[in-house]
TrEMBL record:
Residues 17-74 form the Mnd1 HTH domain. It comes from the Eukaryota. It is found in: Nucleus. Residues 151-196 form the Leucine zipper with capping helix domain. Required for proper homologous chromosome pairing and efficient cross-over and intragenic recombination during meiosis. Keywords: Coiled coil, Nucleus. Residues 83-149 form a coiled coil. The keyword Nucleus applies. The keyword Nucleus applies. GO terms for cellular component: nucleus. One of its GO terms (molecular function) is double-stranded DNA binding. This is Meiotic nuclear division protein 1.
Length: 202
């Protein structure tokens, strides 16, 4: 004789749920323990837990009548529950689609706001910035030129001072010695056109 097969918890739930739908009646927990345990061959001590599981899953309904809880499960109730569930899912999907469209619209608005064509003020600021950079470059170049000019001016002053000093010395020697300045220039190797070495005045 083959050993009895053990019925799983899921199978017991299906058996009990099928029994409810086949009877189309209202039962107290005590009646379920008596009738369903016999019809489904489920130990009576397990029925209460199975009923609680089916209630939690929404497969059977529970309503308190006075001091007693009544349990039932009709075929149309399951169908209606599925329809309601489908409606909820559809509503949730539509809400998510609407929210997604709003986010996409906001994204497009942000992109449009950042677009140079849509923000002339930003374009103007960029142009002002470019102008400032150009002005800085120009001032830097002018500053370099000014430094070069000041250096040349300093050199010019030094050369002029040196030239004047030589001329003063030649005049003093010529006066003291009676020798002409041209002769002194020749003896000292000082060119006649020494003044040409000095920078021309501005």
């Amino acid at each position: 004789m083959a050993p009895n097969r053990t019925v799983s918890h899921e199978e017991k739930l299906k058996l009990l749920h099928s029994w409810f739908q086949s009877t189309h009646a209202f039962y107290t927990l005590k009646e379920i323990e008596q009738k369903a345990s016999k019809a489904c061959k489920i130990p009576g001590m397990q029925v209460k837990e199975l009923v609680s599981n089916l209630v939690d899953e929404g497969l059977i309904q529970q309503e308190k009548s006075g001091t007693t809880n009544l349990y039932w499960s009709f075929t149309y109730t399951v169908v209606m529950n599925k329809i309601d569930r489908a409606k909820c899912l559809k509503h949730d999907l539509e809400s998510k689609k609407k929210h997604l469209n709003q986010l996409q619209q906001q994204l497009e608005e942000v992109r449009a706001e950042r677009s140079a064509e849509a923000v002339p003020e930003r374009v103007g600021r960029l142009q002002d910035l470019d102008a400032l950079y150009a002005e800085i470059d120009q001032l830097t170049e002018q500053n370099q030129q000014l430094q070069q000019y000041q250096e040349l001016k300093r050199l010019k002053a030094g050369i002029e001072f040196f030239t004047d000093s030589i001329e003063t010395m030649l005049s003093w020697l010529s006066e003291k010695s009676g020798i002409q300045k041209s002769q002194l220039r020749k003896e000292m190797g000082i060119p006649e056109d020494l003044d040409d070495y000095a920078l021309k005045p501005e």
